Amino acid sequence: MYGKCGCLLEADNVFKQMQQRDVVTWTTMMAAFLEEGDEMEVFVLLDEMKKEGIKVDDATYAVILKACAAMSLLGQGRFYHASIIDGGFSIDGIVGTALLEMYSNCGALEEACRVFDCMNDHDPSVWHSIIIAFADEGDGKKAVQLFEQMKTENVAPTSRTFVGILSGCSHAGLVREGCFYFETMRQDYGITPTQEHYGCMVDLLGRAAHLDAAEDFIEGSPLPPNGCMWSALLGACQKYGDVVRGKRAANGVIMCEPHNAAPYILLSRMYSSEGKFNEAQTLLQAMAKLGLKKKPGRTLIEVNNTCYHFLANEGLLEDKDAALDLLENLTNQAKERGYAPNTRLVLDDVSEEVKQHILSHHSERMALAFGLLNSSPGTPLRMVKNLRICLDCHNFMKHISEIIGREIVMRDLNRLHHFKDGICSCSDYL
What we know:
alpha+beta; six-stranded mixed beta sheet; 21 helices; DYW domain-containing protein; TPR-like_helical_dom_sf; RNA binding; repeat
């Protein structure tokens, strides 16, 4: 109960007071930490559980695999997959679904498909996971194909499945298909759209530059607009430079989520991109007066089955000078290939040189340099960022993937980005 309510301290106190703890108790505690975003503690508890001689069960493996997925720990995930096979566990049910999601979250789509093909029971949750896998990869057409295949196998889509297909259409710019499925959900399956479905539709229309339609969709929703709907519109306004509408969207987010700093940050960036630094600073000052702070960008990278965390201009870098030299060298090579730093994204009214310096020290670039210095040549680099990747870093990663001849897989707050040979799987449809 405490774990489900996010009261980790209370849950942990009860857990430690128990004289007898079985696998269900340990797994419940792991799930509580996973729910609160503390994936590392999941592995700490796993080690402690093993020391007490308690064997894992299928529910434990599901939690462990979800932790691997959240941190994009492909190496660890493969290790636990092998343990599942050795232990004689079935890969149907929660274990199979967790395996599928782990591989897809890590950008290993072929391995996710192999898990899907080996599963005997394709229930709605399994179909949802494989559809989301292709949606995140940017292959909306394949997501649609799988959705239709699911129907031919007489598996009725659920409300959650429709979230998956609408997300796939949104990420691939399939506006006509997305609108069709939104109507089908209501007319053919009697599923009442939730705020999450409406948010997907706003995102779909906004990404495709249909800003009028996206805003009308919010205003015409029979449900009260929530922060997700307004945030989707705000992101689209930033992408297409609609400051006036962006201000309305930002106000909508603030009304729904008064403690969220994101709308202040996004709108201030829009002002800065147009050279309106006074307006941008006024907005940031208003945010500061409310006690709101920008969430710092943090990037995690897995190198040799070990996780490393990086903040902008910081990180566990014993060879920081070497990393910065490498980044400078890569940046120069990228510029020779047409890369131009997008300094309009920097909020501060500072010189062009300082703006480029700020961009070059984003957390994902620090993680990239660390990965290149400490991993085997040719191996893919896998990262997770707690925020959306900025347009400049996205463009930079495309160039670098071609320069170094290696795949760069990054999961940000919004979707998966698979950089290879100068191209991203999202087709620049951020």
